[in-house]
Structure formats: structure tokens, C-alpha cells
Write a structure and sequence with these properties.
This protein is α/β, with parallel strands linked by helices. 50% of the residues lie in helices and 16% in strands. It has a six-stranded mixed β-sheet with strand order 1-2-3-5-7-10, with helices on both faces. The longest helix has 20 residues. The relative contact order is 0.11. The structure holds octanoyl-coenzyme A.
Amino acid sequence: MYQNLLYETKDGIAYITINRPKSLNALSNEVLDELHAAFTAVDNDPEVKSVILTGEGKAFVAGADIAEMVKLSTLEGRAMMIKGQNVMNQIEMLKKPVIAAVNGFALGGGCELAMACDIRIASENAKFGQPEVNLGIIPGFGGTQRLPKLVGKGMGKYMIMTAEMIDAHEAYRIGLVEKVVPAEELMGTAEKTARIIMSKAPIAIQAAKLSINNGISLDVKTGVAFEGEALVAPFSSEDRIEGMTAFLEKRPAKFKNK
Ligand code: CO8
């Protein structure tokens, strides 16, 4: 079904692997369409509780497809930009948690794709950067917005304006990734993280993601009001009674809303 992705589900986790290693998994229009389809499939599959996104070969994603972009008219470029932004927004707003297992180059649109995920785990050989100004453009899949929110305005400007590539340890130091592990431990660590999150009440995970994603652009007072609204759904759920009762009875919670 997919030409550029591997999609498999196992024990509640959907594994989406961008599989275009000859072009370092560059995001063509077709790859973006397939990512949209794959994340829609995740959304529609009640058996899938979380997603691990990674790349085949030595890259996570080395950016938007430059060979395709060079031929585009301004209007076509705009359409591709909107398509890419929609995919990033779809991932960010997906109700299920998405973990980026960054196995290599995450440049330009690849760094933007990783930033749209909830959590980034990098292998030691991963490299990050926003090299768009080298090509006479700026990030267009959300990088000017999501990068400063993760690493701060100054570091965001530094990375975008110098186009410098940084290694995984520097990415960890500045807050661009949450964990760095040896390459052979990457998928295991991503799975372990997914399983920890999946052991919690799904309705609470969903509400936390919604509240953080929406609140980050708001002033604290409005954000806190949003948080209050987001708390209503988990607080009125059976899983809230179960979680609190299990604590008091000193036993593990058995959440129903899986
Ligand atoms: N697009 C298309 N092809 C690519 C890309 C890419 N982004 N990156 C690598 N490739 C191709 C190479 O052209 C090469 O193809 P071939 O074998 O046919 O010559 C193959 O992948 C292997 O690459 P290299 O030989 O270059 O491998 P190296 O290990 O020597 O270098 C690098 C690896 C450093 C990752 C290098 O390939 C590189 O610098 N790639 C480009 C990185 C880049 O500039 N990315 C940003 C792209 S712009 C972007 O993402 C903007 C997003 C928003 C756009 C909104 C408007 C639509």
C-alpha cells in the first residue's frame, strides 16, 4: 500500500518507518501524502495506542526533497509547504502519543518532523539542523515556530540563521531531544518509553497532550483556564476512580479506557 513507508503494528504500537534510504528519506509530496495516510490509519485503529516514527538507513529524514522542490513554481511550493505543515499539525494533535526514534540525520523538514512528535529519543549518531538558509529558503514545516519553543528564541535563531548541524549530545543539551542512547538501544528505549506511557490512563495522556499543545501558545492565565477544561474529561472518567482507588488499596491500577 505504501511506496515510501513501512507500517506495522505490534502489541498496541504502530511502527512507521520512512523507507526511502537512497534519498536519505527526503520528504517528497508522495512521502507527505503517505505520512498523512499512515497517521490517519493510526487515528482510526482502536488497537493502536501509540506510535514510534523512525527512518530506514543512515537518516531519520534529511529534509524536504530538494530534487522535487527545485522544479516547483511558487504556487506549487506553497501547496507543498501547506501539505507538510498539515502533516506536522496532524502528528502534533493526534490523540495518541508519538515518539520520534531519531536514528540519523534529522535536517530541515526532518528536524521539523521530529519536533512535531511528542518525545524525541536520539541515537548517538543522530544529527540535527535547519539548513534551509543554505538553499535560499527558511523552514516551512513549522521550524521557525516549534524550534524556538523547544530550545529558546536565541538558540532557535542561532540554528536557523547559521544552518549549523549539531550532534545528538548537543541536541540533548539544548532541549531538542529528551534522551540520547547508543544506536543499538534506540528502538528498545523508544518501545520502553511507549509502554510506560501506555500503562497510564489513556484519557489522562490525551488530556495532558491537548493541554500542553494548546497552552504553550497562550499566556499562563489563559493556559491554566484551558488546563482546567482539559481536566474535566479525565476527572469524570471511570479511570480516575480506578487510579485513585488503586493507589489507596496499594495495588496497580487497571485502566479500562485502553
Ligand atoms: N532532498 C533530496 N535528496 C537528498 C536530500 C534531500 N533533502 N538529502 C540527501 N539527498 C540525496 C543526495 O542528493 C544523494 O543522492 P545521490 O546519491 O543521487 O547523489 C543521497 O541522498 C545521499 O546523500 P549524500 O551523498 O549527500 O550523503 P552524505 O552522507 O554525503 O551527506 C547530508 C548527508 C549531510 C545529510 C547531505 O545529504 C545533505 O546536506 N542533505 C541535504 C540536507 C538539507 O539541506 N535539508 C533541508 C532541505 S529543505 C527543507 O527541508 C525545507 C522544508 C520546508 C520546505 C517548504 C517549501 C516546500
